[in-house]
């Protein structure tokens, strides 16, 4: 089984605005992936040239809510996010096949 580096692109209003202005795209990536692995995976998957990769680890947050049976609590999963800057003239079209 191959090591999966890219999990999914993060397509939100904020990330779409950043991709339009600054050629930056956000991806949810494997927790153990490093910047070089992320760069190679994106260049292979989308056929683009990557200039820079920044990563951040989002910690799992506690969530509680009141229900009929009492207080229900849990933890949202932690994940790693990569912000990728592409070289001039490069773009990624997430909606090309829709």
Estimate nothing, just give the exact number of structural domains: 1
Secondary-structure arrangement, i.e. CATH architecture: 2-Layer Sandwich
Order of adjacent strands in the largest pleated sheet? 1-2-6-3
Percent of residues in helices comes to 10-25%
> Tally of extended strands?
6
CATH superfamily: RRM (RNA recognition motif) domain
Order of helix and strand elements from N to C terminus:
EHEHEEEE
Compute the CA-based radius of gyration. 17 Å
Q: Could you please say which CATH topology applies here?
A: Alpha-Beta Plaits
| The CATH class | Alpha Beta
The main pleated sheet reads as:
4 strands, antiparallel
Distance between the termini: 29 Å
- Give the mean pLDDT: 91
Q: What characteristic shape results from the CA principal axes? A: elongated
Number of helices: 2
Beta-strand share of residues = 35-45%
Extract low-pLDDT stretches: none
